[in-house]
Amino acid sequence: MTKHFRRSWRPGGLYWRVTLSSFLVTLVAIVTIEGVSISLSLGSSVHVVVGYSSSAPASANTGVGNRLAPDPTLPEKIQAYFAHLSPVTFYILLLAIVVGTLTGLVVTRGLTRRLRTITRAAGAWSQGDFQVTVHDETNDELGQLALDLNRMAAQVRTLLVTRQELAVVEERNRLARDLHDSVKQQVFANALLVRAARKTLVHDPTKAQAHLAEAEELAVETQEALIDLIQALRPASMADKGLVAVLQEYTEDWSRRMGIPVTFHIQGERTTPLDQEEALFRVVQEALANVARHSEADNVALHLTWTTAQITMTLQDDGHGFLKRNTTRKGSGLVNMRERIEALAGTCMIASSPAGTCIEVSLPLFPLETVARTGVMV
Predict the structure, then answer these.
(1) Which are the contacts of 370, defined by CB distance < 8 A and separation ≥ 6?
(2) Treating both helix axes as pointing N-terminal to C-terminal, what angle do 243-258 and 274-290 enclose, rounded to 10 degrees?
(3) I want to staple 346 with a disulfide (CB 3.0 to 4.6 A). Which of 17, 157, 305, 363 is the partner?
(4) What is the mean pLDDT of residues 361-376?
(5) What whole-number distance in Å separates Cα of residue 227 and Cα of residue 163?
(6) 3-class DSSP assignment, residue 142
(7) How far apart are CA 17 and CA 108, in angstroms?
């Protein structure tokens, strides 16, 4: 037997409660009918007692004194009830009880089977598999519930597909911006240097060599920028390694390439939904990219803190900060950070001053019974 089938047979389960209810209803109905019949029979049997007295006057003897017998006691009623039952009545009573019990078993078996179907589908949904549907084509309340649940699963499935498509579009836009801001400009500058070297190669070889050396250095920077973009498109497997391990690898590699130390602190680490881990990783990527491009920082500190209710990520640098208007310009990396976090019901606060920039991100932690490791929040 399956786990769900064994549960339905456990004492006190729905299966036995409904069956016992059918049995008791049948028994009470039959006993009530028979009891009313006997009570009416006993109530109509009125005993009349006629007494004569020898010492009474003759005229008194001609009178009749009537006295009603007292009501029967409860033991007398029970005794009269069983005495009243004939063998035929007893067999009818027994047959009715058996039929009522079997009816309860049949009705309850179908009911629990349909409920198990809904339970299995709900279990699959809790694991992020919204392809599973409830197959129940009846027109009663459970059938309507199954129809509503299937519609809900279809809507969630559609939302997930839309969300994935939007994520792809967002990553493409981010990649286009990064290519435009870094690689495209570097390649263009490299072409200018090579052209200048070619023009000066004959009459000023020394200057041409300087141009070529500068072009070579710029080509190395372009290669590093392309490596960064490739790693951003193909981060380490978050589902296999987890957020902390992936961030540790990424910050160490970034620090080695940029020459900027990164201190990484974690506190209260716990399992986090995959979509939140992906969002935090992208925020760190964007923040470190901004540090490398604009801040001229000497140090970066990254903190991850888990509590019962939320996860908080703080990234602090000691650069020269930026203008506040850059945090609201559509298409900027900072705006992308905020939109990504707010899409997960989180908050993103950015504070900048001449002493540095601090980015603090908070995301609510939901129970993992309702959030699958595949990244679905229900």
Answers:
(1) 126, 377, 378
(2) 10
(3) 363
(4) 59
(5) 27
(6) helix
(7) 9
